[in-house]
Amino acid sequence: MDPELHSRLDELQRDPYPHYARARGTDGLVHVPELDAWVVTRDADVREVLRRAEDFSSANALRPDVLPSPAALAVLGGGFGGRPVVVTADGVRHQELRAPIVRGLSPARVAAVLPYAAERAAALVDAFVKDGHVELMSGYARRLPGEVIGRIVGLDPEDVPAVVHGGHRAEELLFRPLDEDGQVAAAQDVVTMQHILDGLIRERRARPREDLATELIASLAPGDGELTLDQRHELVAHLQNLLLAGHLTTTALIGSTVLHLLRHPRQWELLCAEPERIPAAVEEAARYDTALQGFRRVTTRTVTLAGTELPEGSSVFVAFGAANRDGARHERPDEFDITREPGRHLAFGFGVHACPGAQLAREQLRVSLELLTRRLPDLRLDANHPVTMRPTMIHRSPETLHLDW
Prior knowledge:
The protein is about 55% helix and about 10% strand. The protein has helices spanning about 5-15, 15-25, 45-50, 70-75, 90-105, 105-125, 135-140, 145-155, 160-175, 180-205, 210-220, 230-265, 265-275, 280-290, 320-325, 360-375; strands spanning about 30, 35-40, 55, 135, 295-300, 305, 310, 315-320, 380, 400-405. Strand 6 (about 305) and strand 7 form a beta hairpin. The chain is globular, with a radius of gyration of 21 Å.
């Protein structure tokens, strides 16, 4: 990517909201060169795109911002995956891929894992509560979601750190500029993760259990014979996508929620005094600074949206984060206010591609806020460590979050 263009993209990603506001105030759609896409920013228009899946394909939903170097691609060639996944599939194939995930993240499965989530959350806080200081992203937010989704999937707890690390490295490899050595190192971490997942898949084929890995295998590769190499590639791709969605998004949501509560001390104090407000705080945090800012879509034919004609093959960025600040849907949209009546936001998508793990993410955030408000009511931002947001549109969160009490 051209250095100047990348600099502008970095600036947009660190704070997209002023750009969204300008786009919402413009007739029709706005084409943003930094994203190489038409940006859909109004709530009604975003919902229209998500309802018209036959006109706006998900095939490019995860198009990377950075093309890995040949050396990095050579390393990735020694791993698994590279197949379409639920996020990038359409129509019947999307339904087939989504079904086992919906079953695996059912309300009953989520309820069953919550005692474990609460236990692990408490243990993580126990590890730093006496210190008077914590960097919350590394000490808590990047750990709890991986352990919880790992439990649901059926990962060996000893493998969770490497899988979580591999997920962060996959995002870095495809969405951040790295030199060639950095790309190769990131690719190696991704391949390590993929081999762990392949081992899990082959072990579950031989010895099924009551977990999501077994559910995926039974649904996508029915039978009991040895898996083919192509089946292993497909299953690793799906499991990798599920795990990344299952921990990266929740990690971002935890970090951003705590950040905004502490930037509004009276609301933090209110939450500590009235913990029954936590569910509303979860919804407001998800609306106000959406972890998943948006996904790409590509038009399958010539369509008109918001008065703008888009030829077949046009790239569109569907900005959930922008829609969640649309004054036509939300009163005082740029204010963070946990006392507002929760509205119908788009933080977890909408329609056939709505996030099947939304309830699991909400519950982990609820558990986290209940724990932090109860045990660390004096929590505050460390003034010596200014907060910088990660430059990304898919898992928006603080890069680090230093807290004192």
